[in-house]
Design brief:
Strand order of the largest sheet of chain B: 2-3-4-1-5-7-6
CATH topology of the largest domain in chain B: c-terminal autoproteolytic domain of nucleoporin nup98
Shape of chain B: elongated
Strand content of chain B: 15-25%
Number of helices of chain B: 17
Strand order of the largest sheet of chain A: 8-14-15-18-20-19
Helix content of chain A: 40-55%
Number of strands of chain A: 37
CATH superfamily of the domain at 180-430 in chain A: Metallo-dependent phosphatases
Low-confidence stretches of chain A: none
Distance between the termini of chain B: 66 Å
Mean pLDDT of chain A: 92
Mean pLDDT of chain B: 83
Radius of gyration of chain A: 37 Å
Shape of chain A: globular
Oligomer: heterodimer
Number of helices of chain A: 29
CATH superfamily of the largest domain in chain B: Hen1, N-terminal domain
Largest interface: A-B, 75 and 79 residues
Distance between the termini of chain A: 85 Å
Helix content of chain B: 25-40%
CATH architecture of the domain at 180-430 in chain A: 4-Layer Sandwich
Radius of gyration of chain B: 28 Å
Structural class of chain A: alpha/beta
Low-confidence stretches of chain B: 65-73, 224-233, 241-259
Largest sheet of chain A: 6 strands, mixed
């Protein structure tokens, strides 16, 4: 061994490095020199962690449990990891191979073998390690005997450092995995399965702005393709077979790959052709014959080039900072940017069960339906009628060779471009058919929500308010409410936020007045507010579709409904389906008449509304809670007053007590009258009043960017369109700098509440307003004096009670209102962007969970 | 909040000596929740009446107690006005000696039966006039009950004015009222602990032991405490509380409480529940299951049977209700040493969400579960159970609605349980079973559980699906 040139160990930047060496071989020193402390997981460290003694052999079992757990978590997070243990026997190493396979990390063995004598010598200097020369000799012998078996055990790289000097001088160089093209941010044009359809490919490339120039020198056709400046193509594989011009497709792909203007990932057909070209025994089927025939007309040099090219293809391409991955048959989230035979198999063939279906085609598991990753996966392989996003994945194989289309996806624009096939080149085994029920592929995938989408402590990122935390116990409460009582999650794309009352009034005899609401917004920089009459009914969210087909296509519902009306807790508003349909029909007619479908270019609307009478939903609450209070208060106070009058009549000293109880009776009587304006019998749809006040969303957009003057304008138009069940909402704009206008608005509120109104809602004119201290309350309610009696009890306004009730904290309620507002906005943002249902559902679920937080319900 | 006691014993004003309260004065007592006043609307030789009125502070009562588990869980509450446990407390505080039967000036009279009348209003009589009579009449009192506001809706109509009269010791009358007021209200304003048991024993001495309704009295007097998780849930789903409330109305005479009490009462004569569990256990045996998940396990009645089956190596119970799971854990002694932990686990989950934690077991049971889901959620349940988890066998039982015609006590058009979203005919169930078979590639056998009726079939229907 005279060659003493230093060894350079090249390894991928994601690998599981297993050090193998006897005690005293210098593994830890070697590891410390080449790897970060956090990358090294040492059995001795773990012995110390569990027993405070790094030489304690009695805790070996526990220490290795810990090593395995740490290694697994690191591999899961795609971190290079080094196992620093002796790893003498194959059985010691087996666990590492299994972990590397599970997380698709390249297993690398580095054998550190400076010689027996050096190890023995070093151990002498470490008296705390009672390993005699026998132990060391035994270990070294075992390691050396196992050397040849390491590749068979599963190590994809084996490095042997068999002298003190080589250990000392070796260097380690880390390379990104071949599939790791994250540093390339494109932009890209990702092209679906071509299958020899060069005509369509040329048209598509031109449509995408590429120039394709063919030339011929010495009878050899060649091509040069010039992309638009900065753009690159990515081929999802299956360039070959079935179609008429496989060699030309290969020429285009090879030329572009060579010029660095395209990435090509391997398809199963490409791989099979490569194997045939390599002289392997492959079954000639599924259009391979066409490729073979067409290649027969080409020279051997072309075939050789083709073979080399096809052998060089990537299993998948990980692009654009990790945001995008292209793989022929798709990829699971935990495979992205990793390398193993399982990753390569999956990328080529998808998740197959090994069974075949009625057409003799392999049965594929719906991996895309389960996909939860943040990396967009673009793939082909399985012909579909239309390319459509499902859970952040999209299949671009639109069956060009079967007479469909050749499709490209522009990234990051996410724009689809496709050209129709000139003809059917190959008859498909299974005909391409649209989904029978008119639902989207995403809706199919969405039918299956997972417990993991909703359970446990949750963090939801919102555009309005950053990350919102939902506590585990609140999520648990929401699970039961959601699963037992809520309407189908496909409809439930929004829940309205709770609303805080205004700051407490300081004026004698009042709990709430408008002055404080105006001051609240004025102090936070709002110039104008919109005051809206607060209807006393029940809050309702309304999804209104033009017909049931729209509901299936857009909401992915399965029944024949054409809309839904639900409460603040996600239950169906009307227990009677006929009433539900009747209300929806009336609303639809009003929207027709107001021409909103055309104006918004939509065939569905989501409205936020109040539905009256209150008693329609709250009759049982009135009967079970409010009416008993009224009855018992009047009866009890009445009996007491009567007895006091009797005692006074015979001269007992009860005057003060009698006066006090007489006043209490008056308040109890006022209480019994307080909800009368909000109660009337409902025998049909004409007895209802619906007051919409927000247009939340319609196709392709949210309406949160329009101010409340606009929303009230729409509400007025709807109220005009059906003057029976659509109730107008009285409203006005108030300039907060104009004292006279504010005073006028206060008077207006006094008038509203004196005549039995609940009160009003004060909103900053714009829907979403940020002040210096963040998001402003979207609305504050200012409730009338008699209405508050229902909420706070018959005697709330007795001076000694009011004084104490004024000391109420609004912080919790306000914070809750903002969190729910942000979650509702986020749910709709995701819904409008056609995000998977689980992403919408988690926000709605979050609102329901937050509603189970304990907040004073009187606020 | 109004209680008066009167006597026509002569001289009637001796009542003042028994109560230790002078008839010409107003007596005020400070209580934690307000004030109590005692005064005499009438004080003559022939008739003397003392009134106890409460001036409860309705705001102080609920201040700072927003968690639903404090003094009062409803902000607008009849407690300040109705005659409830507050009245009992006031009674014990203001008329302690009279209740104890001691009188400094008239010791003999305190031990004597005298003509007495008592008026209490408004008394929340949960259980109705029938229960009021059942409580007071065995104690020798003549009972008159009058609704205070008959036209004020169902719940408000439970308030009555109660008049008791009869010959007895004043201390007995007051003690009876003291114990039975909170029983009629079926609620207490304070946390019930062990000392409350001692109180009941002490005050009930000499009359409660032989009272025919003593079980009901004890149970209602010692109100059950609800967990915090329960309180959070109730904020979202008040009917969960109402469900229990309804059952209490139905089972006013000391039947066991559970969320299925109504259904149980209906089906009890035919011991259907036992037959159902027998059939499911037999079916599990027939499919040779070694691991079973009980979906919608509720309080664990089936699991309690299955735990005894030695051949079952792994049992999982799944329910959406944390409250039911807590009860199941207690029933199954899950967290006790020597309990089935390790072999049995309980999971909080909803059946419309896929769940890896119970996928791939030998068998799943859905015993009286599907009818608790809205019909439009059934496809999601089917996809989760038959499509994603794919147990080797699935056993489903559900009511046969045709058989309801044979339940004599059942009003037509109603279902067996308020939470049932549907009940199927045999044909409807069979159609659903067939659709599952084709969609998910299972084979199913249909059968019935319970007594067979020639026309209406069996009360329960069952399908055993196998892959």
């Amino acid at each position: 061994m005279s060659d003493r040139s230093a060894l350079r160990i090249d390894m991928p930047d994601f690998a599981l490095v297993v050090l193998i060496g006897s005690t005293g071989s210098g593994k830890s020193t070697f590891a410390a020199k080449h790897f970060l402390p956090t990358e090294r997981v040492s059995s001795d460290d773990c012995r110390a962690l569990v027993s405070d003694d790094e030489t304690n052999q009695a805790v070996t079992h526990d220490a290795f449990d810990l090593v395995r757990a740490i290694v697994e978590k690191r591999l899961k997070n795609r971190r290079l990891t080094v196992v620093d243990a002796t790893n003498v026997r194959a059985s010691d190493r087996k666990a590492w191979i299994e972990l590397a396979r599970r997380w698709h990390a390249l297993p690398v063995a580095i054998v550190i073998d400076p010689g027996v004598d050096i190890c023995i010598e070093r151990n002498k200097d470490r008296p705390e390690r009672p390993f005699g020369p026998g132990v060391v000799r035994h270990m070294v012998g075992e390691i050396r005997r196992g050397l040849r078996g390491l590749p068979r055990e599963g190590f994809r790289q084996v490095w042997r450092l068999s002298s003190a000097e080589s250990i000392d001088t070796a260097t380690i160089a880390r390379q990104p995995l071949w599939t790791d093209k994250r540093s390339d941010s494109g932009p890209f044009d990702i092209i679906g399965d071509i299958h020899g359809c060069a005509d369509e490919l040329e048209v598509l490339l031109r449509d995408l702005g590429y120039t394709v120039a063919w030339s011929e020198t010495d009878g050899e056709r060649s091509v040069s393709v010039t992309p638009p400046p900065g753009r690159k193509a990515v081929f999802v594989g299956d360039l070959v077979d079935r179609g008429p011009r496989t060699p030309d497709v290969l020429r285009i792909a090879m030329a572009m790959a060579a010029a660095g203007t395209a990435y090509v990932v391997n398809g199963n057909h490409d791989r099979k052709l490569m194997r045939w070209l390599s002289g392997r025994d492959v079954k000639i089927a599924h259009g391979l014959q066409e490729s073979i025939d067409q290649l027969a007309a080409e020279g051997d040099a072309f075939k050789a080039r083709t073979r080399t090219f096809l052998d060089s293809l990537l299993s998948h391409a990980w692009l654009d900072g990790g945001r995008l991955a292209v793989a022929h048959a798709g990829l699971k989230a935990e495979m992205v940017g990793r390398a193993s035979s399982a990753v390569r198999e999956f990328a080529l063939y998808g998740d197959t069960t090994g069974e075949v279906d009625e057409y003799g085609l392999p049965v594929r598991l719906p991996w895309a339906a389960d996909y939860r990753g943040n990396t967009a996966i673009v793939y082909g392989h399985t012909p579909v009628l239309d390319a459509a996003w499902v859970n952040n994945t999209i299949c671009l194989d639109t069956g060009c060779v079967f007479g469909g289309r050749l499709t490209a996806l522009r990234w990051p624009e996410k724009q689809l471009v496709s050209v129709p096939a000139a003809r059917t080149y190959f008859e498909p085994v299974r005909p391409l058919a649209p989904a029978a029920d008119g639902r989207s592929a995403q809706a199919e995938a969405d039918d299956l929500l997972d417990m993991e989408d909703v359970s446990g402590r949750r963090w939801i990122d919102t555009a309005l308010r950053g990350r919102i935390v939902v506590a585990e116990e609140n999520a648990a409460a929401a699970l039961e409410a959601m699963s037992r009582f809520a309407i189908a999650p496909q409809w439930l794309v929004y829940l309205p936020p709770t609303m805080s009352p205004t700051e407490t009034s300081t004026q004698e005899g009042w709990l709430e007045r408008p002055e404080e609401a105006f001051a609240h917004f004025r102090e936070r920089g709002a110039a104008q507010v919109v005051c809206e009459e607060k209807h006393m009914g029940s809050r309702a969210a309304i999804a209104l579709c033009r017909d049931a087909a729209v509901a299936r296509a857009r909401f992915g519902t399965v029944g024949g409904e054409s809309g839904a009306i639900w409460t603040r807790t996600g239950r169906t508003f009307f227990g009677d389906p006929a009433m539900n349909d009747a209300v929806l029909a009336r609303l639809r007619a009003a929207v027709d008449k107001a021409s909103l479908w055309q104006e918004f270019d939509t065939d569905w609307l989501l409205l936020d509304a109040e539905i009256m009478p209150w008693s329609a939903k709250a009759q049982s609450l009135i009967d079970s809670q409010f009416a008993p209070v009224a009855a018992s208060a009047q009866a009890g106070l009445g009996a007491a007053t009567q007895a006091l009058a009797q005692a006074r009549a015979r001269g007992a000293p009860v005057d003060a007590l009698h006066d006090r109880f007489t006043a209490r009776v008056v308040r109890a009587q006022a209480y019994a009258r307080a909800w009368a304006p909000y109660v009337w019998p409902v025998s049909g749809v004409d007895d209802l009043r619906v007051a919409p006040f927000h247009v939340m969303a319609s196709e392709g957009r949210l309406w949160f960017d329009h101010d409340h003057v606009w929303h009230m304008g729409i509400a007025d138009r709807l109220a005009n369109a059906d003057q029976v069940i659509l109730a107008p909402t009285r409203w006005r704009v108030v300039d907060l700098a104009d004292d006279a206008a504010c005073a006028d608005a206060v008077q207006w509120w006094e008038m509203l509440t004196a005549s039995g109104g609940e009160g009003m809602v004060v909103k900053p004119r714009a829907f979403i307003v940020r002040g210096e201290k963040g998001l402003l309350q979207p609305a504050l309610k200012v409730r009338g004096r008699e209405y508050l009696r229902i909420i706070y009890g018959p005697e709330y306004d007795a001076p000694e009670n009011l004084e104490r009730l004024r000391r109420r904290g609004l912080g919790g309620k306000r914070n809750l209102a903002l969190r729910e507002f942000a979650l509702g906005h986020e749910a709709l943002t995701r819904f409008v962007a056609r995000a998977p249902l689980r992403r919408v559902h988690e926000c709605v679920f979050g609102v329901l969970a937050l509603e189970s937080e304990p907040i004073d319900p009187r606020l | 909040m109004f209680l008066s006691v009167a006597t026509t014993y002569r001289p009637a004003t001796d009542l003042g000596f028994l109560l230790h309260k002078h008839p010409e004065r107003v007596h005020e007592t400070e209580l934690a929740f307000g004030k109590a006043h005692v005064f005499y609307p009438e004080a003559s030789e022939t008739r003397c009446e003392a009134a106890l009125i409460l001036d409860i502070d309705p705001v102080g009562l609920v201040r700072g107690r927003g968690t639903g588990d404090g003094l009062l869980d409803q902000y607008v509450n009849d407690k300040p006005y109705a005659a409830s446990s507050f009245m009992s407390v006031a009674l014990a505080r203001t008329l302690r000696n009279a209740m104890a039967g001691t009188s400094k000036d008239r010791p003999a009279l305190a031990a004597t039966d005298i003509p007495l009348e008592a008026t209490i209003t408004p008394l929340p009589a949960r259980g109705g006039e029938k229960l009021v009579r059942a409580l007071f009449e065995p104690l020798g009192w003549t009972v008159a009950v009058e609704a205070v506001m008959a036209d004020a809706g169902a719940s408000a109509a439970r308030y009555v004015t109660l008049r008791l009269c009869g010959l007895g010791r004043l201390s007995a009358l007051l003690t009876h009222i003291y114990v039975l007021l909170p029983v009629l209200d079926d609620d207490k304003h304070y946390w019930v602990g062990d000392d409350e048991v001692a109180k009941l024993v002490a005050h009930g001495k000499g009359w409660l032991e032989n009272h025919p309704a003593k079980a009901l009295i004890a149970e209602r007097y010692l109100k059950h405490r609800r967990s915090l998780a329960r309180a959070a849930l109730e904020r979202l789903a008040p009917e969960i509380r109402e469900e229990e409330g309804e059952e209490e109305e139905e089972t006013a005479t000391a039947a066991p409480r559970s969320r299925d009490a109504g259904e149980t009462a209906l089906e009890t004569p035919i011991r259907l529940n036992d037959a159902r569990l027998d059939a499911v256990v037999a079916a599990l045996e027939a499919v040779e299951a070694r691991s079973v998940v009980d979906l919608g396990c509720g309080e664990g009645k089936l699991l309690a049977r299955l735990v005894r089956e030695r051949r079952l190596a792994r049992l999982v119970g799944v329910d959406a209700s944390t409250h039911a799971l807590e009860r199941a854990a207690r029933r199954l002694k899950l967290h006790q040493a020597g309990g089935p932990e390790g072999r049995l686990s309980l999971l909080h989950a909803a059946l419309t969400y896929r769940d890896q934690r119970w996928a791939g077991l030998d068998a799943a049971t859905l015993v009286e579960v599907i009818e608790h889901l809205d019909p439009d959620r059934l496809p999601a349940l089917a996809r989760v159970v038959f499509g994603a988890a794919r147990p080797g066998a699935v056993i489903v039982t559900t009511p046969n609605v045709e058989y309801n015609a044979l339940f004599a006590t059942m009003p037509p058009g109603t279902l067996r349980h308020p939470d049932h979203r549907f009940e199927w005919t045999r044909a409807e169930f069979a159609a659903w079973v067939r659709s599952i078979e084709t969609q998910y590639n299972y084979r199913a056998a249909l059968s019935g559980i319970g007594t067979v009726d020639a026309v209406h079939g069996t009360p329960t229907q069952m399908a055993v699906f196998r892959r």
